Amino acid sequence: MDVLEFAVEKALELGASYAEARFEEKNGTSLAMKNGNPEGLQVLADRGMGIRVLVDGGMGFASTNVLTRESVGEAVKKAVKLARAASKVRNEPIRFSEEDFHRVSYKVKMKKDFRDVSPEEKLELLKKIEEEVKATGVNVPMRYLMYSDQLWKKEILTSEGAYVKSKIPRVSVTYNLVVFENGQMEQAPFVQRAFSGGLELIERDEPWKWAVKDVQALKRLIYEGKRPPEGKIDLVISPEVAGIAVHESVGHPYEADRIFGREAAQAGESFVKPDMLGERIGSEVVTVIDDPTIPNSWGFYLYDDEGVKARPRYLIREGIITEFLTNREYAHKLGQRSNASARAINYNREPIVRMANTYLAPGDYSFEELIEDVKLGVYMVSFNEWNIDDRRYQQRYIGREAYLIENGELKHPVRRPILEITTRALWSSVDAVGKEVEFYPGTCGKGEPGQGVPVWMGGAHARLRDIPLRRP
Amino acid sequence: MFDINEFILKKAKELGFGDVVVLGYETNRRQVRFANNEITVAKNWHERKVELFVELEKRVAGTSITELSEENIERTLKTLLANMKGMAPKEDYYGIAEGPFEYKDIPETFDRAIVELDEPNEYVETAINAALEEGAKRVAGVLYTDHDRIYLTTSNGVEAFDEGTGIEISVRAFVGDLESGHGTNSVRVLKKFDPESAGRKAGEIAKMAQNPEQGPEGRFDVIFDPLAFANLLSYMSFMTSAYAAEAGFSFLVNKLGQKVASELVTIKDIGNLPNGYGSRKFDDEGVPTRETTIIEKGTFKTFLLNTSLARKYGTETTANAGLIMPHAWNIVLEPGDYSKAELFSEVKRGIYITNVWYTRFQNYVAGDFSTIPRDGIFLVENGELRPIRNIRVSDNFQRILEGIKALGNESHHIHWWEVSTPVSTPYVLVESVGITRATK
């Protein structure tokens, strides 16, 4: 705290109109297992401080991992100098929105503290995946498994009176499994299960069950999979597929820094313009929410990295664009208050506009009701390849596990159904949404240098009518 | 920092560790980001850290130490030791390289002028102005300057030092919402830095891309700009690591000695490439970096290896350690003999793709992927270029390499946000590339 106060005061003395100091410390372990061999232990112990300032309307940032007054003072000087120089290559000064600030402290509790658990016991989790996958009898010649835990401690102090101290533990298991049967190969790459909290969350989630389900589905796909139907059909997407679709085609294009072009050279721009607030983008059953405050979520936080209190953000409400994701800089440009979307992945990165946990809000259909009047359709359960253009408009998702729907019933698996569609067509085609919400973890990439932040993506099942489905 | 390295090595040996690698870094990095023709943020990073790798009876572990007091170093080593004692061994671990080695200076990798550069904003303004002069309305991008010192000490007799600098810029220029172009320039010595060319190329392509029509789908001969093909080769660089192959992330699995590309294709990793953005004198175990031919005239010759993986497969290291995961330094696709104009005249009806991003795989081992052209895309018909938009490359990696039918005669060194492993590549003409688009 002392060194944070010192940094903020020194920045103001040197001429900053705004200063923000952020201390972060991350401690944790990660373990990998490749084809049954433990790959070694990685111990993470990282800490340092980042200082962001505004001087004459220019923004500067500097960080240091040497936490002496001398070194922090040097970093502050650099940040101020850079901001002042940057202000000379600006058309208009950067300003921040007015906000209410708090002095708060919060933490996520661990029932089973991973710091008290030995690496060999953590490795047992991966061994359990190995054993359960082997017990299925499916031939899985390539198996890459990873376990990771980290305790994130953070303290933020700003010259406008925000002080936020937080402690968030995060645990995850990731796998890549290659199934080889009958001379054919199918793959479930980078499947992750991840939470904010203690080891009990992984144990309760039982990642080995997900792995078993995946390899069995891939084996069935190899032996029973047929070509998917082509042309206009109905498509039911699972919470996992709905999750990637809301993340890519709703969350990203609603990031205000993108809308205003700040990310243009890297993560891209947006088809959404500021005057599109209030415009219809989807059908009336489509509501998309981004909520950092979901307990134990992978994207969890209660205050953002500018010290603003978090809340659920309704990006689309009943088909209408209602809100963008903003930090203080872009909230000011929009004449609004920030909705606490400023996140930085580490002390050596600037906070930028990010998602947290983005999901398609539930409707009132059971799964059976969603498929019962589908004459010809496909149920896409999981996906592999996906991508979207840099305005977030033309996207594609290719099914990994997927089934034919015929006369209201699920039939045989289908191979690689391809949904390649525009954002507006996608969300306008949804005519019914399921009752149950599920979440899936991901790492959202943005910023330069890259900042991969933990997010959940998900939602309820959704039914899309008259979709031009493709096949390879 | 060698005194710190020595201290860590001594303490590690006292505690009973076997192989020990201590890799110290002192880095100074500066960044200027810009968008809408103005600077959005300027940053500075100064960091001192040690990356540590230790082995104890075939159990391996690693960590970074950023707090370099003797007390913290001893505490870290004891923590590693305590954690490793009950662990299962990595049965396929076969040790690190035996030093010492001799190292040669790599030309054009250090320039004091970059260390002493006070203020790089003028280069940003040069790039922005060049793009605006070509007709762009909005210009965005990033400039970096780098100064790195690396200190390596290993338990097998290596003590090695390297110092390098770099300066690079990436510029994206826009005329309207749908019309953009991109240019980059990455060099290790200041006198070779050319931000103007990056800005000018971005502006030129954006101007040419005006009023695009919806693009077609089907199979087309495609000319990949070096910026676009570097993206694909950067993904391939990961797939050439033996580690990626074992983990199921490579289409090169089980293909040693086989033909995986057109005969025109020779791909190398050159760790000691003069003026290469990824060049370094030695790998993470101290082996002097060198040139390794990965694909020679279409035939797959070797995965990239460290000492342990090389011994596992009964061969020699390729000087690409990463102690756990070998990786490429600078990927080089050897140029061919076509001038840019000759290459374009080869195409009766095809597509010129200036940049791609968001390359994602359906299946890594099969190599099926798609990637999105970004910035100017052009239909090429009898030497004329017509701007198009909204298409996707959907194909297979090996098929793309096999379909290469002509290579430009000039190499371009590419390194930017989407191409994290530097790639040198010419213009590349590939026949019959799968192109798709959204139909609703």
Automatic annotation (TrEMBL), chain A:
Gene3D superfamilies: PmbA/TldD superfamily. GO terms for molecular function: metallopeptidase activity. It comes from the Archaea. It holds the Pfam family PmbA_TldD_1st. Residues 19-83 form the Metalloprotease TldD/E N-terminal domain. GO terms for biological process: proteolysis. GO terms for cellular component: cytosol. Keywords: Hydrolase, Metalloprotease, Protease. Residues 113-190 form the Metalloprotease TldD/E central domain. Residues 231-446 form the Metalloprotease TldD/E C-terminal domain. Belongs to the peptidase U62 family. This is TldD-like protein.
Automatic annotation (TrEMBL), chain B:
It comes from the Archaea. Residues 22-82 form the Metalloprotease TldD/E N-terminal domain. InterPro entries: Metalloprtase-TldD/E_C, Metalloprtase-TldD/E_cen_dom, Metalloprtase-TldD/E_N, TldD/PmbA_N, TldD/PmbA_sf. Residues 218-436 form the Metalloprotease TldD/E C-terminal domain. Residues 115-208 form the Metalloprotease TldD/E central domain. GO terms for biological process: proteolysis. GO terms for molecular function: metallopeptidase activity. This is TldE-like protein.
